[in-house]
């Protein structure tokens, strides 16, 4: 009798081990076949971000970007401003204000430092990247067109994102964390398509952890290549307002070093740029 009880006990123990083994295998298989790339490593994330940057700024060389900002209120155009942005490597940008109401103004970004230069003043004004220009468009939104120089990324999960037209897009959700003091945002939740790493949307967070705004990216072509041609900025506090930054023209163009000197800019007009 005792032998029979031992046999039954052993069989039950074996069945329990077998059950746990099967469940573990099924769980692992569910990860493999769910389509979720759960093993995306840091190097792959870095490559994704670099690729996403190239959709925004097609060249790694010094470039001129003609940015037109449209402010919509209840889907009606309220205001428009134009900014010519001269960007070059190592986080340096010069922004020329081209609209008549802002004529003569310019903004300079050198790494973590930002200056606003007014036409009737020879004293550069220190500002932050969160300084608003029009609507939800801030200095940082206009002067910075890449993520890889200011943020380090971490893979979060694979996620479907619904577009305005109802289409579902499979994306990699990344968490970007600022690695420079001059970064426009403390952190960014960024969604990139799984097939091409094209940017779909981004949630932009302040240092306090508060969601500042949400960005959506529009795809088009530039020089025959798929590119980000516009970025819409939404504020959940004012859902009736929308700011659209349209990148009308991007071309390789280099300026002399003097144009990246606040002292030179405060004494000289650069309205011809």
- Number of strand segments: 15
What is the name of the CATH superfamily of the largest domain? Lipoprotein localisation LolA/LolB/LppX
* Total domains: 2
Biggest sheet character: 13 strands, antiparallel
User: What coarse outline follows from CA principal-axis ratios?
Assistant: globular
Commentary on this structure:
InterPro entries: TP_0789-like (IPR033399), UCP028205 (IPR011220). This is Membrane protein. The protein is α+β, with helices and mostly antiparallel strands and 273 residues long. It has 2 domains: 1-34; 42-267, outer membrane lipoprotein receptor (LolB), chain A, CATH 2.50.20.10. The chain is built from 4 helices and 15 strands. The chain has helices spanning 2-33, 42-56, 139-143, 262-267, and strands at residues 63-73, 76-88, 92-97, 106-110, 113-117, 125-127, 132-134, 137-138, 151-162, 168-178, 187-193, 199-205, 211-222, 225-234, 241-252. The strands form 2 sheets. The protein has a 13-stranded antiparallel beta sheet with strand order 6-5-4-3-2-1-15-14-13-12-11-10-9. Strands 7-8 form a two-stranded antiparallel ribbon. It is globular. The protein starts with a helix and ends in a 6-residue tail after the last helix. Residues 1-37 have low confidence and may be disordered.
